[in-house]
Amino acid sequence: MKKYHMIVAALAFLVCLLSAYFGVRIHNANENFLLTDLNEFDKIYHDDISLVPALNRLAAVVTLPFLLGITILEILIIRSANVKQVKNIAYGLTLTVFIILTVDLLTIFHPDYFDFSMWGFVWVCLGLFLLVGNALSYFLVRFGKN
């Protein structure tokens, strides 16, 4: 079971990195569309603002497999946890994954409304929550009294 915690923590870290990457990319496209002449002069290239909905959907689609993997592993952790604290943490983290999945699916179906430069913070913040929660569970299992 200890390896599940580390796998979920690694997947959560990847989700955070991907979310930060897409969030910055979409934020730059939203903010710098008026400065295209100055950006070309400085050789700074950003995505066109018309690509933002497609980038929103791409960000949600890219993170979806990681979130589904985290969901499955969290359910496996709940089923196999022997320590009550670890099981309770896993329940909370499963709820966290469902919140991220809900926003992810809403972003896939409505990419115009759910701009990833703002809603990407859900992925980053709750992904860090998943990372810390699973690291804590790992230490509870590893160093706890059995």
Topology:
Layout lengths: L1 H30 L4 H6 L10 H29 L3 H26 L6 H28 L3
Question: How would you characterize the overall build of this protein?
Answer:
This protein is mostly helical. The protein is built from five helices and no strands. α1 runs antiparallel to α3 (52-80) and α3 runs antiparallel to α4. The model has no long low-confidence stretch (mean pLDDT 86).
Main attributes?
about 80% helix, single chain, mainly alpha, about 150 residues
Which percent range describes the beta-strand content? under 5%
Give the % helix: over 70%
Mean pLDDT value: 86
Number of helical regions = 5
**Major sheet, described briefly?**
none
Q: What gross morphology would you assign?
A: elongated
Which regions have little confidence, pLDDT < 50, spanning 5+ residues? none
Rg (C-alpha, Å): 18 Å
- Helix/strand-derived class? mainly alpha
Number-wise, the strands total 0
Order of helices and strands: HHHHH
CA(first)-CA(last) distance = 14 Å
Q: What's a concise summary of this model?
A:
The protein has 146 residues and is an all-alpha fold. The chain has helices spanning 2-31, 36-41, 52-80, 84-109, 116-143. The chain is built from 5 helices and no strands.
